[in-house]
Amino acid sequence: MASRILILDYGSQFTQLIARRVREARVYSEIHPPTRTVDWVREWKPTGIILSGGPNSVYGEDVPSADPGLLEIAPVLGICYGMQLIAHIEGGGVTRGGRREYGRAALVVERSDGLFAGFEPLESVVVWMSHGDHVETAPAEYEVTARSTNASIAAFQHRTRPIYGVLFHPEVAHTPRGSEVISNFVFGICSAEPSWTAGAFIQDEVDKIRKLCGDSKVICGLSGGVDSSVAAALVNRAIGAQLTCIFVDTGLLRAHEREQVERTFRAHLGLDLVVVDAGERFLSSLAGVTDPEEKRRRIGHTFIDVFEDAASAAGHDANFLVQGTLYPDVIESASPNGGPSQTIKTHHNVGGLKPGMKFRLIEPLRELFKDEVRNVGRELGLPEELVGRHPFPGPGLAIRILGEVTPESLEVLRRADSIYLEGIREAGLYNDIWQAFAVLLPVRSVGVMGDERTYDNVVALRAVTSQDGMTADWYPFPPATLAAISSRIINEVDGVNRVVYAVSSKPPATIEWE
Ligand code: XMP
Known about the structure:
32% helix; Rossmann fold; GMP Synthetase, Chain A, domain 3; binds xanthosine-5'-monophosphate; single chain; 3 domains
């Protein structure tokens, strides 16, 4: 059986990143809740076990814990809360730190083997910390392997058994050598085989989808974005003609999007594509609504209504609905496995589904990150112009018009957005940016055009770099590019007299504005 790493999710926002790092090392990994029993875990046959971080204190009430039996099954790595738990159940001391350690810290490696193989003895390395509690004393059988510069315990290992702990987060990009630490655990300590690839993923999913669907008809909602396209291509590979793709023109799409999607899917994939014109239906469901979560909820429900109607109109008794849900959508809408992570916003294809809908969901990409999805897309033979597209959210322009969505506001935003993207492509910057889009703000400001006073809309431009949408930095455009785009928008889009650029990273902002 192929190597696989079990990750128990104690509620950290970064748990998915642990899975991602392990899979980048080409080892399969899955995330499960900390309530899995020792028997269940033994049955699952992990090659190694990682205990994630989490927001709790090991001394808190009703906090998730770990059965000491877990430490007997396979090598274990505890990260942050995971390390504190190991310290706690093995008889070490964990104390509530007077001051939280949050952000960049320096670490001095005391043992350059095990997790730190390849590091120099006493080497100082930059790591990222995010914790309130400290490991005050290591359990008796444990040896400290790294300390923070203030001499506190930052990593330990059992003297004879393969049990390791780190207080810092090796999974985040801000710990530059974190991948080495994870590889040392996965390969050096667990002796896992690097056999997990896009090709292996496709084969696995194709088998699962065939088994799940049997002879049933399946429909897939296409948005024209990368995720739903890859999901459709994958399900198409599994069940061919049993799949019908439905592209809903929500009226919330960008300029020329509908034509592009029709062309790409019919020409490139030869898929059975039904296009539904539902602009009026979506707009009327959004009339008068200004609350962001309420907008998302209504859009999610309208999608399902439209799919149900389209499926019966096409004479389909489809039982399954394919969605291109990704890991970040799942983690930010709710913890994927019932763990205690917080909801940031309800992505329509996860939290906004209608209760009682008749479809069962197939979400073959639910465990993947965007760049993994792109690799799967390439492996499935999708064209680069599609695979390399910037992400576009299911709720479309509706969550980029702050406040009420009207036909007029859509028109203004569509034009501004299309000029913005054109400017970025002309400057040759499209592929350097994770995602770029315009946002229409619900404020007006004073301007002067010709000799006349104007009192018009403000358009905000957003562009970010990111690896997976979980964290993001704003993109530092050359000023001349921004200036040219701003002046084109004001000159060519009626009703806009001011353009601003968003310079907030995620966190604390999110990428979309609603
Ligand atoms: P945020 O705004 O949460 O966005 O930082 C992270 C990434 O997710 C995309 N996004 C969505 N995608 N349905 C989607 O399919 C949604 O409801 C949704 N909301 C946000 C967003 O565009 C960014 O790439």
